[in-house]
Amino acid sequence: MPRIRTKKTKRAPKGWKHIEDTLMEMTQKMRDVENEPHEGKRKPETVWPIYRLHHERSRYIFNLFYKKKEISRELYEYCLREKWADANLIAKWKKPGYQKLCCLGCIHKGDKNYDSTCICRVPKESLEEDKKIECVTCGCHGCASGD
């Protein structure tokens, strides 16, 4: 979530108006997801939409800066500083093999069985056919870059 703005916050750099509407729309979606009822869902399933929206917002800023080159470095750093995007997740996306990474929890080895990465990081070719892959942490269906 973005930081709460105080009176001392720095003014947004040039180009902020270009992306502000999309980011505010994503923030509204996040609020809607947080407020929707959780009855009938398993405990991890309640946070999966939040992970997806967090990924979507970070990917939007990543694509604008690195792929499309539509925003300036100053605006990109402003978005990272104000927590509009996850800087650690974007840093992983720039490394080979992590281009499609869904969340940092999938590569954190301490939370998984046998101190390994998440099942969604295994390429689909090496798994049995007709086996449904679903990450327990974030609910993704496979984020290995070899897919």
Automatic annotation (TrEMBL):
Family assignment from sequence similarity = Belongs to the BUD31 (G10) family.
Q: Which UniProt keywords apply?
A: Nucleus
One biological process term from GO is: mRNA splicing, via spliceosome
Q: Which InterPro entries match?
A: BUD31
Please classify the protein's predominant subcellular localization into one broad category. Answer: nucleus
Query: Where does the sequence pass through the membrane?
Result: none
Query: What Pfam families does the database record attribute to this sequence?
Result: BUD31
Gene Ontology cellular-component terms for this entry are: spliceosomal complex
Biological source species: Euplotes crassus
Intracellular or extracellular location(s)? Nucleus
Name the chain's protein: G10 protein
